[in-house]
Amino acid sequence: MTQPAPDSPPTTPLDRPWLVLGAGGHGRVVADLLLALRASVLGFLDPGLAPGEPVGLGLVCLGDDGCLTDPRYAPGAVYVANGIGSLPGQAAPRRQAFARLAESGHLCPPLIHPMACLAHQVAVGDGAQVMAGAVLQTGARIGHGSIVNTGARVDHDCRIGAHVHLAPGVVLSGAVGVGEGAHLGTGCAVIQTITIGAGAVVAAGATVRRDLPPGTTFHPAKGTPEP
Ligand SMILES: CC(C)(COP(=O)(O)OP(=O)(O)OC[C@H]1O[C@@H](n2cnc3c(N)ncnc32)[C@H](O)[C@@H]1OP(=O)(O)O)[C@@H](O)C(=O)NCCC(=O)NCCS
């Protein structure tokens, strides 16, 4: 008997050139992802650099966000990737950039590195970014604007909210839920079926074995008791 076709993993569209908003470390990783996909990358937008200033990867700064009103970079002519990263307590600029792009009508489709491993029946929201070496197992859902950073592993049926940052090397076991805006620090691990509340922070390297309430920081090395 023929099996029904499974839902294919999501991909990044390459039918228009890309701009990268933000020329810092995260922005260069995003540009490198696009180059690995053989996308056409026009350059960076960053108010901190002069137009024409080299950023790396053979790319230059084209100007600031004001360039998005230039007809050459109009919605429909380009895609714009959000190259602004996020850290605990410093997540606002990335979210604001996402909102500005949505408001100006610039599409910010999901970015999936060609060396990420995505199973069937995975969903990745607009503006979400899945970096090199990340693994998303079947049934995983990544909310809009989120980052699944280098080498992070998201096992089956995890539900990741919007604007979450899973930092490099995070490991989520099956069916973990992560609320909007949470930050899971580098190399932390979460056992199966745990819920991490919205806006919560998990310290780099911590192991989470109980649900974490919204807005709390779990930092065992600093004496935070297990919730
Ligand atoms: C949890 C965290 C937000 C706490 O930040 P903070 O409250 O500013 O803590 P501090 O940096 O002041 O450190 C307080 C103490 O805890 C220690 N510490 C901080 N984070 C730690 C961690 N993850 N594991 C062990 N110890 C840690 C510090 O060395 C310091 O020790 P000391 O008092 O003996 O000097 C932060 O340490 C963290 O883990 N951030 C995540 C970073 C990340 O994911 N980066 C990804 C970039 S892509």
Task: Characterize the structure shown.
This is UDP-perosamine 4-acetyltransferase. Keywords: Transferase. One of its GO terms (molecular function) is transferase activity. Belongs to the transferase hexapeptide repeat family. This protein is 11% helix and 25% strand. It has 227 residues and is α/β, with parallel strands linked by helices. The chain has a domain of 86 residues: Rossmann fold (3-Layer(aba) Sandwich), CATH 3.40.50.20. α1 links the parallel β1 and β2. 44% of the residues are buried. The protein binds coenzyme A. The site of coenzyme A (COA) has 15 residues, from loops. The site of coenzyme A has 15 residues, from loops.
Termini Cα gap: 49 Å
Which ligands does the model contain, each kind named once?
coenzyme A
In CATH, the architecture of the domain at 18-103 is: 3-Layer(aba) Sandwich
The name CATH uses for the topology of the domain at 18-103 is Rossmann fold
Classify the beta-strand content into a percent band: 25-35%
Helix-strand string:
EHEEEEHEEEEEEEEEEEEEEEEEE
CATH level 1 name of the domain at 18-103:
Alpha Beta
Family: Belongs to the transferase hexapeptide repeat family.
Organism: Roseospirillum parvum
InterPro entries: AcTrfase_PglD-like, PglD_N, Trans_hexapeptide_repeat, Trimer_LpxA-like_sf
Keywords: Transferase
